[in-house]
Design a protein that fits this description.
By secondary structure, the chain is mainly alpha-helical. It contains 11 helices and no strands.
């Protein structure tokens, strides 16, 4: 009569066998681990993946270079391309952090103008409609203006100049939108403040003339409100 081996005992025996195989090296011969690729091969695969739009695979390749070969000749380039791949995946906050780390560690690197431009683009890509918070537009503008100040005459500075104007237009449109919102709500004092802020800070962005017209209307309406309120005051309130 054969002895019965229960599931628990069979599992323990299998586990013991696996441990023995691992210890004697037979496991690695039966199931060889993934061979570490050279940094040059990882770089080639990462660039090909990035060019073909396989951004997740590109991130993986560049990250391996950064982790495994931090002193190789491909390490610096991999750091930038890792940020590029994150950007291409739409992970703008992560890409911004990667570009920022590169600038912090390598402030004299020739690629810094490109890195600052991409930092600005990480914010620029997150600009929403004019009825939403415009912090990304303001942050993008600041990055682009920093680039123009630090590296005038570079190709990246030329690209940044165009983006700066787009940021200012977006910010001006937002101010006009908020001013019109207050105007429709008959809060003419708040609307006046927004219109005045617009013409003082964004005088050449296309919304200037409408803001000027609305300022005049707000002042007239505020004056009428003041006169109406004054007329309704009881006579003894004047003493």
């Amino acid at each position: 009569m054969k002895a019965y081996i229960g599931p628990a005992k069979a599992f323990l025996m299998l586990l013991f066998l696996l441990v023995m195989l691992s210890g004697c090296g037979l496991w690695n011969r039966l199931f060889p681990p993934e061979e570490d690729k050279a940094p040059a091969q990882l770089m080639s695969e990462g660039m090909e993946a990035l060019d073909r739009g396989f951004n997740e695979a590109a991130v993986e390749s560049f990250q391996k270079i950064k982790d495994r070969y931090p002193y190789s000749q491909f390490a610096v380039e991999a750091e930038i391309r890792l940020a590029d791949a994150l950007y291409a995946r739409g992970k703008y906050d992560e890409a911004f952090d990667a570009y920022s780390e590169f600038e912090r560690l390598r402030p004299k690197n020739p690629s810094i103008p490109y890195v600052i431009y991409r930092r600005g683009m990480c914010h620029f890509q997150q600009i929403s409609t004019i009825d939403r918070d415009q912090a990304p537009a303001a942050k993008a503008r600041d990055e682009f203006e920093r680039l123009v100040r630090m590296f005038p005459g570079t190709a990246e500075a030329g690209l940044a100049q165009k983006k700066i104007r787009e940021c200012y237009i977006q910010l001006a449109r937002h101010e006009l939108y908020v001013g019109n919102f207050y105007f429709k709500a008959k809060n003419y004092g708040a609307a006046l403040g927004r219109y005045q802020y617009l013409i003082e800070n964004y005088p050449d962005m296309g919304q200037y003339h409408e803001a000027i017209r609305k300022i005049s209307i707000c002042k007239e309406l505020l004056e009428k409100q003041a006169q109406s309120a004054s007329a309704k005051r009881p006579w003894w309130k004047f003493f």
